[in-house]
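FORM 7B: Structural annotation worksheet

SECTION A. Query
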Amino acid sequence: MSPLEPNAHSAGVSRAQDILAAMPEGGLFHEKSWRVSPDPFPISPEFFKRLEKLGHQLTVFVKACAQLYRTSVDRRQPSWIAELLDRGKPRELIDIQRNKLFANDIPRVLRPDLILTENGFTIAELDSVPGGIGLTAWLGKTYSPHHPGVIGGATGMLEGFESVLSAGDIVVSEEASTYRPEMEWLARELGILRDAPGRWRVVDSSPRKDWAPQVYRFFELFDLANVPCARQLIDLALDGRLSLTPPLKPALEEKLWFALFWLNPLEAFWVRALGDGTFKALRKVIPQTWLLDPQPLPPHAVIPGLEIHSWEEAIKFSQKQRDLILKISGFSETAWGSRGVFLGSDLPSQEWTAELKRALRVWPTAPHILQRFHHSRLFHHPIFSPETKAIKTERIRVRLCPYYFVTSEKTTLGGALATLCPDDKKLLHGMPEAVLVPTSVDDPNPV
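SECTION B. Predicted structure
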């Protein structure tokens, strides 16, 4: 790898030190750290246009998911779909998400995890209660003075979040406390931007007497029993005295939607609900996914794409055949972050067998999915070392997370977080060795 030119190196070191100095006191994540680069991750104008289109396509997809669940409940679509999506959920939460008051509610912040590949990208999953909103806003503000191409600029994430919560309370649970610092920074910056200190308030999950009319939920639904204010928020929402987003719809937070999207018997529904163009576009980027349903198949049937008659055959897959991701679908403490995710080809045969059998065993209450693994592309990017005060161009792999803010009028791309992981990593996520930077539009560019 060729070293940077002396002037460029000196300027890069100065920018990197400025970025570190700009970090809010106490950081943006509780007890979490990452490495720094002086430069955003660059993408081409053509790739940027794809990201903008993807926001609309994913909004339509989520609306279609909500429609499929509703029509399965009232049996206009097969009833097993709703039954599957409701597995493991408490009855009260199922009743709330079926309440007609919330029929048209969908998550208003969407963040797909895009793995950049040789042929473009693949969507590893779609998160509707995403972390990183405040972080990406801070990165946009910090990098944009030196890099005018940063997606969203200095305020895009702030304005996007304001379109979702024009004022109100952001509830951060104890389980999600790692993210509290970034949400507190976000609330302060929104107040500064609109000259309205206190208009946005980050609160813990204690019951309150002074709830704002609008509340942003930053806690997972599986954790409701550990959220003391949950009962109060639910009652106020049911009485129409408070609007709560993301909505209390655990069905929409399941990962198994990607498997339903690939089921041949449901293809006609997806084409009709999405439109032919969006259906074909999403088929190119949503990896083939399967439900790990242990129910026996008829003697003449096989699982499409894997061409096996039973999961017992998958247990015997070779290491190459195990280029598959195994993960829990949702409603579990292991269903977010990088927890509960296994790459079959990285596991010894005995461990692969044990994890697959465990997933099949818990299917009745905790459905799991199997997903085609797509290898990420290698890039080169300058990275700063605080110890040596030098910049070195390193080989990295990239997870790109665009943040889409959904209103009744449109879906807006507020910014995009790039997680640059060392080249020896296969599962790409936030880690101490990773570099977190915003994404910028540049031309020419390798992406």
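SECTION C. Observations
The chain has 13 helices and 15 strands. The longest helix spans residues 45-73.

SECTION D. Sign-off
Analyst initials: ____
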